[in-house]
Specification:
Length: 182
Amino acid sequence: MYIYRYRSVAGPLWFLEKDGAICGLYLRPNTCFNGAQPACTPLIQQAVEQVADYLAGRRYNFSVPILLEGTHFQKKVWQTVAAIPYGRRYTYAQVAQMIGSRSPRAVGAANGQNPVSLIVPCHRLVGTAGDLRGYAGGLPMKQALLDMEQAVLHGGSWGGFDAVCRQRWDQLTAVEQEWLQK
């Protein structure tokens, strides 16, 4: 497994490749990084370029191969979330209904374990009333991503990632800071 840390306009991102596919795109360091070999492989470079284009508002979807490792239920949730169109928001209840589950909370729990953030756009899931729920990069980051997508689609303006990026850097724990040095 290979790992590469990328300093994006939205803050640090960690890309992981395994078996010829992107198996991780994390907004925060994760224990799955242990044992990964630091490298920017051609596939990781392609994923970095696609994510950079997405964050710049020039890309609506991704074409890099991904490897989703999880339970059968988690994979169903992630595959459904991956199909949510750019700029759209679905509720946890809608996704639950789409996959034949009666538990929006279980969908939320699975969504929270999404190993490939941004590529599988878990930020597009919201509460029943449209309210923001948890997000690995923090709720300001989730809001910034949603705002960016709306601005790109509708030609509006938005504040950019500067404030959320500074906040993400400031909130990193000592362990996460250590990972930044790797």
